[in-house]
Design goal:
The chain contains seven helices and seven strands. It is α+β, with helices and mostly antiparallel strands. It comes from Zunongwangia mangrovi.
């Protein structure tokens, strides 16, 4: 009986040792990821393994905007989490998100994280919809809430829709600004995707509400 329990203990120990030595790919440093893709922006979104961009692609195709998105110098892509609907008919989705809503995320300028970080100040520009936006970079300490996995604090790219006549100063507590005049900012979760034409695409955080609503 003692030998039986001893054997079980050895098996459990060895099993734990094997688990602790797991060399899964996500634990392995494979160097700097290649930001270049071999297909167009929309094709890249279509091919996402987790089908996270189905709603965005649906809208792009409905408004026949593939060429416009693919030719954009910069496109900010939103995941399915950004769309507010539950089993609504397609007509309701199209009514809620007209074509110019997509154009809010299309820019004629090539927006790069590295260039903005080097610039050191926000850049104000208009989207394809004609609305005014601001882009900037920031080292976000909130990103490290909990366990710190890197000694380097990365810069994050932000896109801000300007609401009202004045641009909200960066770092100012929003509560000091009237609600109807507060600019809306969103952080990128993936930044710096480069298509075959050298144009940019960034993926917006899942917490974003499409159309900046």
């Amino acid at each position: 009986m003692k030998n039986y329990f001893l054997n079980i203990a050895v098996i459990v120990f060895l099993g734990g040792l094997l688990i602790s030595c797991d060399d899964s790919p996500y634990l392995t440093d494979e160097g700097v990821h290649d930001p270049n893709i071999e297909v167009s922006k929309v094709e890249y979104l279509e091919q996402n393994d987790w089908e996270l961009f189905d709603t965005l692609v649906l809208l792009i195709d409905h408004y026949d905007m593939r060429e416009e998105v693919n030719n954009a110098a910069t496109f900010f892509a939103a995941t399915d989490y950004a769309f507010a609907f539950n089993n609504q008919p397609l007509d309701s989705i199209y009514s809620r998100y007209p074509a110019d809503t997509i154009r809010d995320y299309i820019f004629n300028e090539r927006i790069m994280l590295e260039e903005l970080a080097e610039r050191g100040s926000p850049l104000t520009l208009n989207s394809a919809s004609g609305k005014e936006f601001q882009v900037f970079t920031r080292t976000d300490n909130d990103f490290f809430a909990g366990e710190r996995w890197s000694s380097v604090e990365p810069d994050f790219l932000y896109l801000t829709k300007i609401i009202g006549e004045n641009i909200d100063p960066i770092g100012v507590d929003p509560i000091t600004i009237p609600f109807e005049e507060r600019d809306i900012s969103v952080r990128m979760q993936t930044q710096g995707i480069i298509d075959p034409d050298g144009n940019m695409m960034h993926v917006i955080s899942n917490t974003h509400s499409f159309g900046f609503n």
